[in-house]
C-alpha cells in the first residue's frame, strides 16, 4: 500500500533552520539489526552497567539482547573470609529480579552490580585494600525460587547443589538471538603460557607503553600487558596492549588496580625525563 503524505510543512521548517541541501535516503525494513559486541561482558569480571539498561526477557536478565547474570565484585572488608569459603561467605550472583535485589534497590545499593555471561561460575572479586582474585560464588536461592528453575520449589536442596551456570545458559539460550563467541571466556585466570606471551609481547614493542609512550626498557616490571576485551585467555596479538602501570589502571574496569607511591613517582619522573606529555 502506497502512502500519500505531504511533507511541505516539514521542508518549510527545515529551510527556516538554514538547511539548503537535502540528501536522499530510503528505509529498508528487511535489513537485519547489527550485531552488538560488548567488550568484557563474557569475562569473570563482567562490566558495570546502568541498571536501567538491564532488561527482563523470558524471566531472566538481558543486556543489549544478551543473556546475563548480575553479581557484586566488591567484597570490601570480608574479602579474606571469602577467599577461605567463597561459596558460603561470598555475595551471591543473581539470575532475575528477585526479592534480594528489590531490597538492595530500596537501600540504594543496586548500582554496585556487574553483568556477565561467563558460564563457568567463576567471578572476579576485589577487596577494600585493592586485593583481587577469581572465586567460585553461589547462586541466589531467591532467584531460583522466583524462576522455579527445574521445579526448585519441590526439590530445593537437589536443584541448588547441582546448579551450574553452563546448564542454566543452555536452558535459556534458545530464547536469545546470539550467545557470546567462545574465545576462552569460560576459563578463569590466565593461560598456562601467559608469562611467556607477556614477555614476548612486551619485547616486541621494545618495552614501550603503547598508551603514553614512556620507555621502560630499564624498568620492565612497570610494564604490563593488557587484554583489550577483558578475556584473560584471549591472547591473540590484536587483543593485547602493552601499558605502564599508570595507564593500565586507567583502562575500563581497572579502577581497582593499585599502584604504589614509589612506582607512581618513578613513572612520572621517567615520563618527564623522556619528554612524554600525558594527561
Description:
The structure is a single chain. By secondary structure, the chain is of the alpha+beta class. 28% of the residues lie in helices and 14% in strands. The protein has helices at 8-16, 79-84, 86-89, 99-106, 141-147, 156-162, 165-172, 194-204, 245-249, 261-273, and strands at residues 47-48, 54-57, 60-63, 66-67, 69-71, 114-116, 122-126, 132-136, 223-227, 240-244. It is flat. The strands form 4 sheets. The chain has a 3-stranded antiparallel sheet, with no helix packed on it. It has a 3-stranded antiparallel sheet with strand order 2-3-4, with no helix packed on it. The mean pLDDT is 82. The protein contains 10 helices and 10 strands.
Keywords:
three-stranded antiparallel beta sheet; 279 residues; single chain; alpha+beta
Quick overview of this protein structure:
The protein has 279 residues and is of the alpha+beta class. It has 10 helices and 10 strands. The protein has helices at residues 8-16, 79-84, 86-89, 99-106, 141-147, 156-162, 165-172, 194-204, 245-249, 261-273; strands at residues 47-48, 54-57, 60-63, 66-67, 69-71, 114-116, 122-126, 132-136, 223-227, 240-244.
**Helicity range:** 25-40%
Oligomer: single chain
Main sheet overview: 3 strands, antiparallel
Rg over CA atoms: 24 Å
N-to-C CA distance: 58 Å
What percent strand? 5-15%
Detail the poorly predicted runs. none
Per-chain topology:
Layout: H1 8-16, E1 47-48, E2 54-57, E3 60-63, E4 66-67, E5 69-71, H2 79-84, H3 86-89, H4 99-106, E6 114-116, E7 122-126, E8 132-136, H5 141-147, H6 156-162, H7 165-172, H8 194-204, E9 223-227, E10 240-244, H9 245-249, H10 261-273
Antiparallel strand pairs: 1-6, 2-3, 3-4, 5-6, 7-8, 9-10
Amino acid at each position: 500500500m502506497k502512502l500519500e503524505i505531504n511533507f511541505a510543512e516539514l521542508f518549510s521548517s527545515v529551510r527556516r533552520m538554514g538547511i539548503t541541501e537535502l540528501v536522499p535516503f530510503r528505509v529498508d525494513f528487511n535489513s537485519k539489526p547489527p550485531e552488538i559486541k560488548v567488550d568484557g561482558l563474557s569475562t569473570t569480571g563482567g562490566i558495570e552497567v546502568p541498571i536501567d539498561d538491564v532488561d527482563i526477557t523470558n524471566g531472566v536478565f538481558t543486556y543489549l539482547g544478551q543473556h546475563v547474570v548480575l553479581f557484586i565484585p566488591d567484597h570490601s572488608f570480608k574479602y579474606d573470609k571469602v577467599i577461605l569459603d567463597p561459596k558460603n561467605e561470598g555475595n551471591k550472583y543473581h539470575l532475575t529480579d528477585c526479592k534480594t535485589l528489590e531490597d538492595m534497590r530500596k537501600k540504594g545499593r543496586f548500582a554496585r552490580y556487574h553483568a556477565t555471561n561467563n558460564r563457568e561460575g567463576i567471578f572476579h572479586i576485589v577487596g577494600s585494600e585493592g586485593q583481587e582474585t577469581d572465586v567460585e560464588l553461589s547462586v541466589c536461592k531467591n532467584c531460583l525460587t522466583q524462576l522455579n528453575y527445574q521445579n526448585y520449589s519441590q526439590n530445593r536442596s537437589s536443584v541448588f547443589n547441582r546448579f551450574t551456570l553452563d546448564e542454566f545458559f543452555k536452558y535459556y539460550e534458545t530464547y536469545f538471538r546470539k550467545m557470546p563467541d567462545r574465545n576462552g571466556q569460560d576459563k578463569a585466570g590466565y593461560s598456562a603460557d601467559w608469562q611467556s606471551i607477556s614477555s614476548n609481547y612486551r619485547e616486541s614493542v621494545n618495552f614501550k607503553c603503547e598508551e603514553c609512550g614512556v620507555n621502560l626498557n630499564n624498568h620492565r616490571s612497570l610494564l604490563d600487558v593488557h587484554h583489550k576485551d577483558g578475556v584473560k585467555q584471549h591472547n591473540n596479538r590484536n587483543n593485547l596492549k602493552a601499558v605502564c602501570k599508570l595507564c593500565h589502571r586507567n583502562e575500563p574496569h581497572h579502577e581497582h588496580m593499585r599502584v604504589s607511591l614509589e612506582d607512581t613517582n618513578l613513572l612520572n619522573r621517567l615520563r618527564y625525563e623522556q619528554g612524554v606529555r600525558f594527561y
